[in-house]
Amino acid sequence: ALIEPKMPPRRYQSVNEVYQDLDHPNTFLNNSEIRPYIGKIKFPHDKLFGRNDHLSSIMNVCQRMNSARPSEMILVSGHSGTGKSTLVNHVGKILVKMGVNFTSGKFDQLQQAKPLSTIIDAFDGYFSEVMQSGQDVINKTKTSLLKALGSGVGVLTRIIPRLCAVMGISATDPVQIGVNDAQNRLKYLFESMISAIATPSQPLVLFLDDLQWADISSLQLIKST
Predict the structure, then answer these.
(1) Are residues 105 and 166 in the same domain?
(2) How many domains does the chain have?
(3) Do residues 215 and 112 lie in contact, with contact meaning Cβ atoms separated by under 8 Å?
(4) How far is CA 64 from CA 72, 92, 173, in A?
């Protein structure tokens, strides 16, 4: 991995450097002692190996999002530890450079009793990014949300902490999400919020990890959007 890169600082400078790194395990064995060692044998964390086809497939779907196809869903499956999350997060970095909004959340088996908690965390992260994007972006986001949600935005500010900062209001006590009518209203508000912040000119990609642990309310929201 360090022989091929074109940039000199990221590759071996001589055959002797390669030999020294490869010889260190022998040194440890001969001395019956393993000392702390930070060598040059390491792989870059920003490069994917053997994932070009999967990367292209995901990027193709993301790039065809427009007003005619307002939403798309991509399911990335595979055994645990095969690099699914790494692949999608790599895509996220590419999309952000292209001006696409990217946010993520991770479902947890122990959080299934808290409806929408993972999606709430994901959008809390999104609004945190909005707050760091400058006053023009904040004002534009605030205007879009008020237009789409009206007074309903107050409900969402009580469960999405950083939305309070975007809307310029003080945080109130968080609410517990109830069932039936309350959850149906909340689902409607989330749908309206997503429609307001995800536009053809600036799409939103939401990455939800470990979908097998999603609660029913989250699955219903995903299905409806």
Answers:
(1) yes
(2) 2
(3) yes
(4) 9, 16, 41
Q: Domain limits at 205? A: 100-224
In whole angstroms, what is the distance from residue 14 CA to residue 66 CA?
50
Q: What is the pTM of this model?
A: 0.70
Q: Give the whole-angstrom CA distance, residue 193 versus residue 187.
A: 10
In this structure, are 139 and 219 located in the same domain?
yes
CA angle 156/114/129 to nearest 5° reads: 45
Picking from 40, 58, 38, 36, the residue whose alpha carbon sits closest to that of residue 48 is 58
CA-to-CA distance for 15 and 95, rounded, in angstroms?
A: 38
- Are residue 32 and residue 107 in the same domain, yes or no? no
Tokens 């949600």 sit at which residue? 149
- In contact, 101 and 92? CB cutoff 8 Å: no
CB 62 within 8 A of CB 88: no
Phi, psi of 72 (to 5 degrees): -140, 150
Evaluate whether 159 touches 121 at the Cβ level (below 8 Å).
no
Residue 208 has φ and ψ, to the nearest 5°, of: -115, 110
pLDDT digits (tens, 9 = 90+) for 7-23: 455 555 677 766 666 66
- 168-179 burial, b for 16+ CB within 10 Å, e for fewer? eeeeeeeeeeee
Look at residue 62 and tell me if it is in a domain: no
Q: Is residue 67 part of a domain?
A: no
Q: What is the pLDDT of residue 3?
A: 44
The mean pLDDT of 169-177, rounded to a whole number, is 62
